[in-house]
Records
---
Amino acid sequence: MIAVTPSRLDFRALKRRVTIERVLAERGLLDHFQLRGDDLVGPCPLHQGDSRTAFVASRVKNLWYCFTRCRAGGDVVELVRKLDHADYHQTARYLARLAGESDIPNAPCAPPFRPFTTTLRLDPHAPFLLAKGIHPHTARAFEAGSYQGHGFLDGCVGVRLHNPTGQPLGYAGRILDPQRAQQRGKWRFPARLPKRSLLFNYHRVHARLRHGIVLVEDPWSVMRLAQINVPAIALLGTTLSAEQHNMLRPAPQILLMLDGDSAGQRAAADLQRTLTWARVGVVQLPPDTDPDQLTDSELAAAHRLFVPQIA
Ligand SMILES: [Zn+2]
């Protein structure tokens, strides 16, 4: 037996018995990971950025490291402590439960996500948005713009996020400083945001799903398409959870308009395999081109070409 009383926490035994892989699997995170040699590689569950290679866990050493925003690593104990904001005792109880060595009830779980419902004053004339061809009235309609102030959105263009029924959840921030974006990932999301049950713009367009939908990676492409009256949904990344698949099920046709980089192309190929119920079209963009770099007529042409029936 492994002792889990506060006075006798046998972390060495717990670290031997519980793998990082097990912790990721238990939280439904493992399907975002790929095996490279003996390493599991995937998006960082701590900062929840959109890099699919940020987080590496060695299955041999049972150690992890986040190479982008966190720039930190450790063992399974540190991972659980950080994931759950838990103390050592709570972490030991949780790991002991996973190790099957303890049937102590009420193992700690992560504190629940708390929506941020305050409306922030964002400037829709942000040069970043104008450069993408997003009109200020569109930005205003989508509650997007630059933020003057300190805190979460400092140095970001923000955009409001909603749950599937349209309740505000808070803001996502696109980091503007290229160096910072390179190091930490382009996006900031609220802590513990339930990303796996979110699709950007879903609440505005779900009634139109039965006519078909365009799937893009980020909110900017959604806004550009909205300007030519094409309903679109952004993945806020490049993968879809089971829950997100279910949300899209009413759509008989889906047009994938992902970024032209290799991650976007790989994601399009993956999604084509998993969106089994729909007729799926794929817009192949030139390398390193995002949909928001196309002109309105190019966007409209791509859309017409692949899904002529979308109203
Ligand atoms: Zn990280």
---
Amino acid sequence: MAAARTRLGPAGPATRLGAVRIDLHTHSDRSDGTESPTDLVRRAHAEGLDVLGLTDHDTMEGWDEAVTAAEEVGLSLVRGIEVSCTFGGYGVHLLAYLPDPGYGPLDHELRRILDGRSSRLPATLARLREVGIGIDVEDVRRVAGATAAMGRPHIADALVDLGVVVDRNQAFERYLGPRGPGYVHRYAADLEDMIEAVTGAGGVSVIAHPWASRHDHRALDAAGIARLQRVGLAGLEVDHEDHDARTRAELRALARDLGLVVTGSSDHHGAGKVDHDLGCNTTAPEELERLLELAARSAVAADRAVPAVVR
Ligand SMILES: [Zn+2]
Ligand SMILES: [Zn+2]
């Protein structure tokens, strides 16, 4: 890592992170966002964000480019991944911040998830053809851009491109969601194992949009979340567009009771998702400070380099 980067260690970045705007969950075109990591970082800077978390689905592909762009514009970058997991039989998204990318068990799981996604693609297209939609992999590739993880959002974009549906939401509602004719089950990591792998990689784990209405979250009740905390969970993403005011209040209270870090973020996907503008939800500086301290501690315990945040 370049010398220009400031290492934010256990001493804490609090003084340097005074009144700042922090968005810890965004996607580039390396997963299902529509902007390159460079464009995403530049836009974040232009729109007045001070700290940006890049958290593409199951891939660290965008990190290097984002680091370069962040150094150019002078934005703090928190490198992350949003990992597809299962817990109690239900899908859960885990935000993993600052893991060492060279840590074997994490890398192995991410590869398995990405492989599962690649084999899911042809199976999904075959099912769509069975219900009469003329779509093949070239239609998806045409709209997928530079992604390392061609998946359902790109199939949704292809369906829009082909005029089958009007937008991604309709594609999921009619064809690609769990009850749709194009739904194919795919591998996801065990959530508790993944939290341990992230900690082993010297990173920290935060559950993304735990109580989003579009997910079945019955496994993530207070007892479930307490159980995850015992294996190393550090925080909950409370402020997210998929949580209404009451859900946020309940989750915030739960996080406070358990002593978990509270984050807020946009889950920005560029033009790929409406109402998720950069900075529409933000994380309080003191919460980021706690998260970075836990990451530094986790890195020391794992005997890995103290995680660096690009400044
Ligand atoms: Zn998610
Ligand atoms: Zn996301």
